[in-house]
């Protein structure tokens, strides 16, 4: 709506503008009207999407999926069952950090907190700015880092993650990854794998879920050993959770 003097004048709707454009034929005025009709349509669509996103995190997930399909790598967020299984494999008594890679809308983050991980020990890394903003609003006490998971070594060493009483970064006891590793191109994937394996404490544990129900874990190419594997069928699509650690580390 436009405000003219004290009168509220309703702007012509998309259909009315398109009708005018058709009637005007192919002249310049017709083209301008058609462009205006398209703009009004796009603005309305944007407002509708923003409203839906504010009402439901799943809409935000879908919007990011449409914007960056290769990066999001899933048609919907993990099921509560998968999230709960991932969280149950984390030792809540460990004093170090739990670093979640690819937080999305926070389904696994919420399960980790419900499992007893203190917010002050939890770090969530998310590449999408919109999803990272959402995570910050949803989990105010949790450290949310927006950017590429390949940078976790740098963030850990440069004081971007919670530190201990001595001011030194707490060790990364657990990495919980929801990254769609198989849809991330090779060079970028290798950087993430190297960074993750490097930052994981010697006794640490890494959990990765994947929709590939068979085959080796990409983390094995970075030198980690697979200690345990299980399937979670109650997810869309069904998933596998791999638990990995450094060679010689005792499986918990
Ligand atoms: C399959 S979704 C999983 C989301 C959530 N963890 C869940 O289980 O519902 C993958 C998430 O990883 C994020 N992501 C993809 N590549 C990334 C990268 N290189 N660094 C950080 N986050 C990334 C995507 O934006 C997306 O939110």
TrEMBL record:
One of its GO terms (molecular function) is methyltransferase activity. The keyword Transferase applies. It comes from the Bacteria. GO terms for biological process: methylation. The keyword Methyltransferase applies. InterPro entries: SAM-dependent_MTases_sf. Keywords: Methyltransferase, Transferase. This is Class I SAM-dependent methyltransferase. It comes from Ottowia flava.
